[in-house]
Write a structure and sequence with these properties.
Chain lengths: ~375, ~400
């Protein structure tokens, strides 16, 4: 569950608050609810799909549903989707570091360093990914909210009042990109479904719920602490909030705490993506040695990250216009296609055969 | 092979130890303690004064200068825009400019009148440019102001910022919303703000730290705060004197304990004034918004040496008299500033909280009316029950 939370929050906390507040104004904290609800509905489709294929991951389901050739192609599409998201994640990360604390370090250094560590962790298997996440979560949760609490000296109720004054409902419908990112990207977590002992779906949905809650609380705090005027302009509002927090006279620069927390969150997202991409290839082609996959991933992803967008302005434009459509293809169209294929298959062939083959193909 | 592997293990972490590109050694930095900004209206050139902490004076560590080292050095540089200054400064500066720890920002009156937008953008555009520092308006020539040492607190920035803290706590002369980020927020909401004015007591400046520490006269060319500058739409449009500042801050929820002599019922009495509770509410009455300002003020008799109420009736009379005075003063302050077009009590913002007012649009706000209700309470905390 917490993996889902951290995965969803990953880059969202970086990239989205500004845009959301720009659109939602004082009631921006309501926006995650709507988008999140839509996200959960979409997630239910994936869960439904995975119910048809117990013990199968996202890479294996298409092969089962569409056959070796077409299914493999679909799985590869998913693989590219993961790489694409990972590229975005890496680039967001290096942009953040470049524009805040480490302006002179080349972007590729961040990309390759992060990828090296992520590949090392992913090579140790999913248990490690999960365990890492379990250990790290409290260390992210408490410093983050403590740092935010330290900033509450700047709180002003005038900034959030009057509640529900703007045309929030219309704005919510307008902002469909928010469903695309981050909620639709959760499809990658289907790679981990076979590893969850039971109730993977329940964990996914409750993870979504917690992520929505945190995002909403986060937006509420940003508005209350910075005001919509500033937070809709600042690149990284959360960073600025903590930068302006002061504990007494001495402790004035505690924003490095936030940097580390945000970096860890991003790292978790990257870790899941790298693991998923690796498993995707691994399950599809079942090579004898795994290290070439990792080497290829590092080269591919660092290249992706370098070229995924030219600058943040282009990125924002992309997010606004295409994210929903693009992610819908992977998160809505393909799962629905697979579901449809499953139904047709079940109608043609008795379902018992599917179960038997499903069991034998398990890793 | 084994040796190679060991070597690899030893070398690889060294690669991962990042920061090779962005490493900054403490003794390669020029720590800025205070920034002064000025501009020439004719040529449009921007002048910036940086007060750098002198590491050899040891203030950053111990708080006391050693020997005759100046605690700070003022660098003056200019450019066509504020951005250019980050290049031109290196004609003078042998270390890396490090601005993120500065404590105060002083802007010349000339520039404040011309507009602060450019400067504010310049601070906010940098990820390490903290906007949570107080912004002051210079009442004397900025060059002199930036080149004068202060007694007791040898770093002028510390002196200025801790004085602002003192004034915020022990007077109603300084608001707590005097930082750059407060300015931005108010300006973006089209509300005015008042920033403190700082100036030199005498015309000459104390440019030598050894002079400063060897003269007894602390007043001589020291910095002092004097009134406040009203800023509307990033431009300084006028001034408030100290008396007006008291009512401005009180009506805006200032919590400082201000001691003031009042003339109540023909007698003078010095009381410590402290705001206990403030509430602003808005009603839609007779086709216009009415903003009610409810203030609950406590008056302490700590310094009431002139006279003290003896009976309950006397005390009640004093309380009512004080409430009346505060109501009148705030109302007259409101009317005076309203005539100038400054919404210093932020009536518009209060009125907009009301749904009906919002529905009537911006025109309704113009006819907004202010009602001040003051509840006063005397608290006897003095050490004498009656003055001799």
């Amino acid at each position: 569950m917490f993996l889902t939370v951290n995965y969803i929050l990953g880059t969202t906390l970086f990239v989205l608050p500004r845009g959301l507040i720009q659109q939602g104004g004082k009631s921006a904290w309501l926006m995650p609810w709507w988008a999140g609800a839509a996200g959960i509905v979409i997630a239910l489709i994936w869960i439904w799909l995975s119910r048809h294929y117990p013990g199968q991951s996202l890479a294996q389901i298409p092969v089962k549903a569409l056959g070796r050739f077409f299914g493999g192609a679909v799985s590869l599409l998913f693989f590219f989707h993961m790489c694409m998201i990972a590229g975005f994640v890496l680039r967001n990360l290096s942009d953040f570091l470049n524009s805040t604390i480490l302006p002179e370090t080349p972007k590729s250094v961040f990309h390759i360093m992060f990828l090296l560590v992520a590949c090392y962790a992913a090579a140790q298997g999913a248990v490690n990914v999960a365990r890492f996440n379990m250990i790290v979560t409290p260390f992210l949760f408490f410093p983050f909210w403590l740092a935010m609490l330290a900033a509450t000296g700047n709180w002003d109720w005038d900034r959030v009042q009057p509640v529900l004054s703007s045309d929030i409902w219309g704005k919510m419908l307008e902002n469909h990109a928010f469903i695309g990112f981050p909620f639709m990207e959760g499809i990658v977590l289907m790679m981990l479904f076979p590893l969850v002992r039971q109730g993977g779906g329940k964990a996914l949905v409750s993870g979504y719920a917690v992520a929505i809650l945190s995002l909403s609380a986060m937006l509420f705090m940003i508005v209350g602490l910075l005001g919509i005027e500033r937070s809709s302009r600042l690149m990284f509002p959360i960073y600025t909030i903590v930068q302006e927090a002061a504990i007494g006279e001495v402790v004035v620069n505690i924003h490095s705490v936030i940097s580390v927390v945000l970096l860890s969150l991003i790292f978790i997202k990257l870790l899941v993506l790298v693991y998923a991409a690796y498993e995707c290839l691994n399950q599809l082609f079942r090579p004898e040695k795994q290290w070439p996959i990792f080497l290829a991933l590092i080269i591919l992803l660092s290249g992706f990250a370098q070229t995924v967008y030219e600058n943040l302005i282009q990125d924002q434009e992309y997010v606004k216009k295409y994210t929903f459509v693009f992610n819908s293809f992977f998160s809505l169209f393909l799962p629905c296609l697979l579901l449809a294929a499953t139904w047709i298959r079940n109608a043609v062939r008795p379902p018992r055969g599917r179960n038997a083959s499903g069991g034998s193909a398990k890793r | 092979m084994q040796a190679l592997r060991k070597l690899m293990i030893a070398v690889l972490p060294a690669v991962v130890l990042a920061g090779c590109w962005d490493k900054a050694e403490m003794n390669e930095l020029a720590l800025v303690s205070m920034v002064g900004a000025d501009s020439d209206p004719e040529t449009g050139r921007k002048m910036v004064y940086y007060q750098m902490i002198n590491p050899l004076s040891g203030i950053s560590v111990q708080g006391a200068p050693s020997g005759d080292q100046a605690p700070v050095y003022t660098y003056e540089t200019s450019g066509r825009s504020f951005g250019e200054i980050h290049t031109t400064i290196y004609k003078l500066l042998p270390r890396k400019l490090f601005v993120s720890q500065y404590r105060a920002l002083i802007v010349s009156e000339k520039m404040a009148k011309e507009g602060l937008l450019d400067l504010v953008n310049m601070i906010e555009i940098q990820s390490n440019g903290r906007t949570s520092v107080p912004l002051l308006i210079a009442g004397s020539p900025l060059a002199q102001l930036m080149k004068t040492f202060t007694p007791l607190e040898s770093v002028p920035a510390d002196s200025v910022s801790s004085r602002l803290d003192m004034l915020e706590r022990n007077s109603l002369l300084v608001d707590k919303n005097i930082r750059v980020n407060n300015l931005i927020e108010r300006m973006e909401r089209s509300e005015p703000i008042v920033m403190p004015i700082v100036k030199l007591i005498s015309a000459d400046s104390m440019t030598k730290s050894s002079d400063r520490i060897s003269y007894i006269d602390a007043n001589r060319s020291n910095l002092t705060s004097d009134g406040g500058a009203v800023i509307v739409n990033y431009r300084m449009v006028g001034k408030l004197d100290d008396e007006e500042l008291v009512w401005y801050n009180l009506a805006n929820g200032g919590r400082g304990r201000h001691i003031k002599q009042f003339q109540v019922n023909g007698k003078s009495v010095t009381l410590e004034m402290r705001l206990k509770r403030m509430k602003r509410s808005t009603e839609w009455r007779e086709d216009r918004p009415v903003v009610t300002l409810d203030l609950e003020i406590e008056f302490l008799t700590n310094f009431a040496t002139e006279n003290m109420p003896k009976t309950y009736e006397e005390m009640k009379r004093l309380e009512n008299g004080l409430a009346q005075i505060v109501e009148d003063e705030i109302t007259s302050f409101y009317n005076k500033t309203k005539a100038k077009g400054w919404d210093l009590l932020r009536i518009r913002q209060a009125a907009e909280q009301n749904r009906k007012v919002r529905r009537h649009g911006a025109d309704a706000l113009k006819s907004a009316e202010l009602k001040v209700n003051v509840k006063s309470r005397i608290a006897h905390t003095a050490n004498l029950s009656q003055p001799y």
